[in-house]
Design brief:
Radius of gyration: 17 Å
Strand content: 15-25%
Structural class: alpha/beta
Helix content: 25-40%
Shape: globular
Bound molecules: the ligand O=C1O[C@H](COP(=O)(O)O)[C@@H](O)[C@H](O)[C@H]1O
Strand order of the largest sheet: 1-9-8-5-2-3
Number of strands: 9
Largest sheet: 6 strands, parallel
């Protein structure tokens, strides 16, 4: 697993634009070398900010959207089309505006889908979908995602892996149901740390003052059960993309504050 690297941008708008440009380059490169690309999206303010920036990025049309697989790191277990679902927000921010192949848009199940309110069955079916997409060249039951993005919550949660809840302790399954999440809604579906760690690159997005403490804790040697963001690492690269507000409490050894 890779050691975290940090990139600190001046503010959240610049961070979103730079991350969008970075993502375009990654997708184009993956499509050039492997024929297609796979990206795991995150919900939350920073993830949606990146998608909105991508929608207006001048280089957006460099991507072959029909050769892109989209997956989700987590989902709020709500009915299809609910405005709080991560996929609904992603569609609004970007997905409805680009020519994706609908068969390659792998949304997590909704609570009014084939599994009804059975969140464990919904999680299992997503795990099966991931396993079907994994080839022999992959390292387990999920594809080797080119980029997996995670918004970092103020409590250090990533995807729907909240501190101390059972999901963050999972070592076998790739997708699990979550009950009693401290952030609404309480019922969710999430990739686990083993699935996250199968990604080639993991990008953690943190912008705003309310993320400063979480970034400092996760990057200062905290354990992943207490600080799930600390356990999110990519096989080849782990990249923290921050704005200066989110970086403001980092230890000086990681990010020396600018001298006045
Ligand atoms: O509920 C969620 O929250 C996190 C972080 O969101 P933010 O708004 O604090 O940036 C997000 O990463 C996750 O996907 C989402 O379901």
């Amino acid at each position: 697993m890779s050691t975290p690297q940090l990139v600190v941008h001046h503010d959240k708008e610049l961070m979103a634009q730079a991350a969008a440009a970075r993502l375009i380059t990654k997708i184009v490169d993956a499509q050039a070398s492997r024929g297609s690309a796979s990206v795991v999206l995150t919900g939350g303010r920073n993830g949606n900010g990146l998608l909105a920036a991508l929608a207006t990025a001048p280089a957006r049309d460099a991507v072959d959207w029909s050769r892109l697989d989209l997956w989700w790191g987590d989902e709020r277990f709500l009915p299809e089309g609910d405005p709080e679902r991560n996929v609904t927000q992603a569609r609004e921010a970007l997905l409805d505006a680009v020519p994706l192949d609908p068969k390659r848009v792998h949304a997590m199940p909704a609570s009014d889908g084939p599994h009804g309110h059975d969140v464990e069955a919904a999680a299992e079916s997503y795990a099966e979908e991931l396993a079907r997409a994994a080839g022999p060249e992959n390292h387990g039951a999920v594809p080797t995602f080119d980029v997996l993005m995670l918004g970092v919550g103020p409590d250090t949660h990533v995807a729907s892996l909240f501190p101390e809840l059972p999901a963050v302790r999972e070592t076998e399954r790739t997708v699990v149901g979550v009950h009693g999440a401290p952030k609404p809604p309480p019922t969710r579906v999430t990739l686990t740390l083993p699935a996250i760690r199968a990604a080639r690159e993991v990008w953690l997005l943190a912008a705003g003052e309310d993320k400063a403490q979480a970034a400092a804790i996760a990057l200062s040697g905290a354990g992943e059960i207490q600080a799930p963001a600390a356990g999110a690492r990519g096989r080849a690269r782990t990249l923290w993309l921050l704005d200066s507000a989110a970086a403001s409490q980092l230890p000086r050894s990681l990010y020396p504050p600018a001298s006045s």
